[in-house]
Amino acid sequence: MVDARGLSCPVPVVMVQNAVKESNPKELEVLVDAKVCVENITRYASSQGYEVDVKEVDGGEFSMTLKKKA
Amino acid sequence: MGKNSKINIWVLIAGLAVGIAALVLTALGNPKNMGFCIACFERDIAGSLGLHQAAVVQYVRPEIIGLVLGSFIISLATKEFKAKAGSSPAVRFILGMCVMIGALVFLGCPLRMVIRMGGGDLNAFVGLAGFVIGILIGIFFLKKGFSLKRNYNVTTTEGLALPISSVVLLVLVIAVPSIFIFSEMGPGSMHAPLLASLVIAMVVGALCQKSRLCMVGGMRDVVMFKDFNLLSGFGVIFVTILVGNAILGNFHGFSAYLQPIAHASQLWNLLGMVIVGWGSVLLGGCPLRQLILAGEGNGDSAVTVFGMIFGAAIAHNFKLAGSAASLAEDGTYNAGGIADTGKVAVVIIFAVLLFVSIMNIPKLAKKTK
After folding, report:
1. How many CB atoms lie within 10 A of CB B92?
2. Where are the domains of chain A?
3. DSSP A60
4. CA distance B352 to B344
5. Are B111 and B286 within 8 A, CB to CB?
6. Which of B74, B135, B150 should be substituted to probe chain A, the one whose Cβ sees the most A Cβ atoms within 10 Å?
7. ipTM of the shown complex
8. Count of other CB atoms within 10 angstroms of residue A53
9. Is there a contact between B284 and A9 if contact means CB atoms under 8 Å apart?
10. What's the half-sphere exposure (Cβ side, CA atoms, 13 Å) at B185?
11. Bridge partners for A50 per DSSP
12. What CA–CA distance (Å, rounded) separates B3 from B141?
């Protein structure tokens, strides 16, 4: 689980990148609170072979689920 | 383009709009190779408010107001406006100040650097080399864990700080222009009509908000994530300016000699832009992006903009800014450059950037406690 709420560009993507590099997880939950972070993380995750599912939760926060493509 | 495609069409549209805006505004009266410069225009506003007394660079540039309002209006419409703040505001103020001084040593923000490149100014290519070096230094610290920490939800008034300040400035400059100082000669006296500047900048501001266009983000994302999305905007601006200048008959080949409002003191062109690149990576965006984020309700970016305006005042009050190359009446060429005070300032700023970079890496900060 990566909680990148409130962090400014490009720190959220760096956090996801570190998580992916460290353990190459099959599934990763990411919390962000800006649309721009959703877009940036989606681009990065897609380039690393992940499918991305985004759900908007309370108060403009987004819960992202990154799943490694089979 | 699809959701996952590498390049967002909006970035290309925004890049094209910025390039065309710079060409049109120059044709309408803005200084050469300075159709759209964030650092220069904030510096002109600082001068017009009397924060510095450099008589040739004082004008309330409607472009700055328009960018903020364009971003503000579209972010309200798309429900992206969100009042956020609290991520190291004082440090951001100081970084904004440093970036502005670096930009004025070079004579332009990253946007004007691209505009100058498209105008055939080889000095700007030296600036580009510095900019890339600065970004690489910033990335080094990002990879070590650098962060200015989280921001938080705040009251709407915080998010409205820069949009409302912009409206007030606009109303005052229209209603009581006599309270401001306006240059009678030099770059500050050259400007497009107010309404044209304002409307064009609002359109550009809206497109930049929509596309997230950022001069520093382009190269940073390529190096860190092999993501060419934002860099494509940078490229489109360059090509648009180059082709536009050629069509308008303003392109006379590439040269470093006597370029408009530029100096040929290459070490300082380089170092000025190293500061801009490094500082902007730490801030998370170039000067243009800070205006756009402030329009979206980001109080930290508003503070950064205020820091930049303060930095502009410091730069001119203490003669840190570069002076342009010139040709005397007897034909003597002066390559321009910066005064000794400016050179000292550059060294001090490097120390400040290093200190901020190290102290905001959690592990290293703990060790030094």
Report:
1. 27
2. 2-68
3. G
4. 12
5. yes
6. B150
7. 0.94
8. 11
9. yes
10. 0
11. A68
12. 31
Size of interface A-B (CB pairs under 8 A): 64
- Number of CB atoms found within 10 A of residue A29's CB: 12
Give the CA diameter of chain A.
Answer: 33
Query: Residue A20: helix, strand or coil by DSSP?
Result: helix
Nearest to A44 among B153, B217, B225 (CB): B225
Summarize pLDDT for B121-167 with one digit per residue, the tens: 999 999 999 999 999 999 999 999 999 999 999 999 999 999 999 99
Measured in whole angstroms, the distance separating CA B336 from the mean position of its chain's CA atoms is 22
For residue A4, the Cα-to-chain-centroid distance in whole angstroms is: 8
B229 close to B34: Cβ distance less than 8 angstroms: no
Q: Which conformational region is residue B120 in: left (phi greater than 0), alpha (psi within -120 to 50 degrees), or beta?
A: left
SS3 B293: helix
Strand ranges, E, within chain B: 84-85, 152-153, 326-327, 333-334
Length of chain B counted residue by residue: 369
Q: Which residues pair with B85 in a beta bridge?
A: B152
CATH no. for A2-68: 3.30.110.40
Choose, from A9, A14, A36, A57, the residue flagged as catalytic: A9
SS (H, E, C) B167-220: HHHHHHHHHCHHHCCCCCCCHHHCCCCHHHHHHHHHHHHHHHHHHCCCHHHHHH
CB contact under 8 Å between B225 and A39, yes or no, is no
Residue of A nearest to B286 (CA): A9
Which tokens is B250 given? Answer: 């303003």
pLDDT in tens, B298-340: 999 999 999 999 999 999 999 999 999 999 999 999 999 999 9
